[in-house]
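=== Structure Prediction Worksheet ===
Name of assembly: unnamed complex
Input type: mixed (protein and possibly other molecules)
Chain count: two
Listed entries:
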Amino acid sequence: MEGGPTLRLRVFDLNCWAIRYLSKRRQERVQLIGDVLRRESFDLVLLQEVWSERDYSDLKEKLGSRYPFSHYFRSGVIGSGLCVFSRFPILDTLLYQYSLNGYPYMLQHGDWFCGKSVGLGRWWHGVIMAMLPPSCQLHAEYCREKDAYLPHRLVQAWELAQFIRHTSKAADVVLVGGDLNMHPEDVGIRLLRGWTGLRDAFTEATRFEGCEDGCTLVPNNCFTVKSELLPFPLGIRIDYILYKVTSGVPRGSVLGPVLFNIVQGGWHPTEPPLSSTEATLADVVTEARTEVGVGLRAAQRQRYSTGRMAVLALLLLLLQAAAALGTLAGLGAGQPFPKLSFTLLAFLAIGVLLLATGLHLFHTMEVKMLQGTEEQMRMALRALQERP
Amino acid sequence: MEGGPTLRLRVFDLNCWAIRYLSKRRQERVQLIGDVLRRESFDLVLLQEVWSERDYSDLKEKLGSRYPFSHYFRSGVIGSGLCVFSRFPILDTLLYQYSLNGYPYMLQHGDWFCGKSVGLGRWWHGVIMAMLPPSCQLHAEYCREKDAYLPHRLVQAWELAQFIRHTSKAADVVLVGGDLNMHPEDVGIRLLRGWTGLRDAFTEATRFEGCEDGCTLVPNNCFTVKSELLPFPLGIRIDYILYKVTSGVPRGSVLGPVLFNIVQGGWHPTEPPLSSTEATLADVVTEARTEVGVGLRAAQRQRYSTGRMAVLALLLLLLQAAAALGTLAGLGAGQPFPKLSFTLLAFLAIGVLLLATGLHLFHTMEVKMLQGTEEQMRMALRALQERP
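=== Predicted Assembly ===
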């Protein structure tokens, strides 16, 4: 309905890369980000990778006059790194933890220790917002072909899509901002957009000011690792603002920060005919399901091999216990091994047993979650095919 | 609106206590449960503690003709134990994992290993359903006063309430069934009901057939541990069916299984005046917040003591390393300790270091989640107080 009251939203989204002790010139950058935010007047500010609560408190203090409402989402060992600043009161928040988020033993990636979650806020005019924290460091092209994290990232994309579907039924405007760690044409992005009906603010924009092709990780940035971006001389686009308007129509010009002009009313944006959309969506879900299946088989293999290792370590321990008992009972001809090696071997076996058992439990969980996602996708495919 | 089309729902809810290798006469009981369900014609069947997927498959095969739609919620190492059978197509499901669920080292309770989650299903007529799995074994009265799990259970009740609020905005009927492991007057139940507006099917029932006071864990049950129920000669009520109708009015007679007669229409059930309700709700949230605060301080103490233990173990290791290096460099006067004791001590220190570090990480997470919940509750209280 043209001519209705206009809702204009200025949204700012940034992955701050503010890891304590690790990120270069962290405090200086956080301070500068705060300066920019205080100078500009956004309506919503979505920040990711603010890992230190101290940084959040500093920002909160600095921005209190311009953005009186804020929230920091706590989760995981280190935290979720997600926070939001707002000009409007935040009515309610909810945190959803992904069921899979990398491996605890991949310490160098550290994803498992981060809060594997999506934060949701609800504002008074029905805006709902979700932020996806970076699920894991995106690997450059030479690694994209053997991306071990792909099934986990697809499970996360699926869970995020499901979460948005279920929590946004009554929202007028849905905004999803964050570092999705996926290229625009990747199956995870297509799945997320297809299953939720979210639109990409960059591709829908009538006006855009920013890096070429909307890239958000560019070689010109003095903090990026140049070698990782070798296959992409222009850079890559992995940060997104996605949106959906259910009770109005977005007419947006997108600058660095996204700007929405939302006309309140009952008019719905024109959609492509349902049947063709659903055929494409079914293809995307099928593709994602295939990848999840590949991950499932890998997880099953790892569950099996860690289980076998645990059993072997247990057998070794039992053998040692039998030998020790035999020596004590005076059956053996003296001490077959030197005491020290014997003890060391026992401790080694105990260590392997504990480690292998822990990993076995972890991969059991992984198998369950991948199976669950695969089944949900099958259910979704059936629903898509059965719809008249 | 009287006289509108009537929606009649027959709902069955049961904690099946079907733990592989542990539950007595499991297979026999599961078979009998299947027989009853096949004989009766319910619309929705919510089962908890079906830990074995094999049991679920058996039930699915048996019940396929009467309940063509079903779903098993997978999560955790062992699983969530939740499944649902339905006469109506299940459009969509979602699993929400609680952020806290007991302690990994409390092996005898085993809660940490279970799927700490609530399952949600959506049906074609807008029914939304959530099932809360047993969060942990309820302790009898002598333990209720020193209930170490209370803060965790309150976090779960709060997260469940938030989850229901956010996912049920567009639902006509909300049903929550499950073993909540809380007495009707407990703060967790009051919090859940107050914050969501859910009604207790038992107290609202005009007709009821079942155990006295609606008890669901009774001494007469040959599988219950009599000693645990000594302070409650009649038994206790810990299983619930809660409901909310937003676009109709429930007129229910409640038998063993809950029976709803829902008249579709725009009429809303009469509610007590808003201000008095909100005053009570604020009291409940305050009470819950106090308990969460108690849990938070306990978790902070544990985080501190496990951290200290890790540091001590690390110091011991460093000391040993220095002594060993000193001996190697020929500084010491020979070997100060026998080699075996020295090695044993080193392994002990490594073990303590690993264990204490793991526990420290766990309690750090616990602190974060308790802090997060406390802040959400504070936000809720402010919203309650500020509302005109």
